[in-house]
Design goal:
Blueprint lengths: L1 H38 L2 H4 L7 H18 L1 H15 L4 H16 L9 E5 L6 E8 L4 H7 L4 E6 L7 E6 L4 E3 L4 H9 L10
Antiparallel strand pairs: 1-2, 1-5, 2-3, 3-4
Length: 198
């Protein structure tokens, strides 16, 4: 009987490990596809409803906007429109912050997350994974601290898209010998996924 219970637990656990990630991934893809279809109101103008048409349109619009933004006239238009939006109270600050974030993540030649480090956070003796967003904190922060500081993003688990921005001296961090994407996997998996460098 004990042997049967062990076999059941082993197979059940393995089955969950196989099915749950696939199901969650497909569920997320489905949600994104149907959400984009709703944004483009595909059901209202398309005679045949085919899931994913909105996603194809979204990719096309993004590529078209990128192509326009890359040429001289498009760059001039984007720059002027950006300046106009930035002058609008509240909306301007949200737009500016979002644009800078996207530029740092996807822009060619722009800085992305530099490295993964360990930081004593939220208290001494407790360490957490942080992602260095800049080797130099903003001038206002450096002036107030009276020293050089790193800008570090602390992602939350299991959703790394939300988190905290902290400023820490370099000597108070410990560099992790992992790539940033591997560090993010560790965060998302609640520490269950180990680094491939181990």
């Amino acid at each position: 009987m004990q042997k049967l219970q062990n076999i059941f637990k082993t197979y059940f656990g393995t089955g969950l490990l196989v099915i749950v990630p696939i199901y969650v991934t497909l569920w997320l893809i489905g949600k994104i596809v149907f959400w984009v279809d709703e944004v483009f109101a595909v059901n209202e103008w398309s005679p045949v409803v085919v899931p994913g048409v909105g996603l194809i349109l979204a990719v096309f619009v993004i590529l078209l906007a990128g192509a326009i933004g890359r040429n001289v006239i498009g760059s001039w238009l984007v720059a002027n429109l950006s300046e106009m939006v930035k002058r609008v109270p509240v909306i301007g600050s949200v737009y500016g912050g979002l644009r800078q974030t996207l530029q740092s993540l996807f822009g060619n030649g722009e800085k992305k997350f530099g490295e993964a480090v360990l930081v004593e956070y939220p208290r001494a003796g407790s360490w957490t994974i942080g992602l260095v967003t800049s080797e130099k904190a903003p001038p206002l922060v450096r002036e107030a601290a009276g020293r050089e500081m790193l800008s570090i993003y602390i992602p939350t688990t299991p959703n790394p898209t939300s988190g905290f921005l902290i400023f820490v001296p370099r000597e108070q961090t410990k560099k992790l010998n992992v790539k940033v994407d591997e560090a993010i996997k560790m965060i998302v998996s609640l520490g269950l996924v180990e680094s491939s460098t181990e």
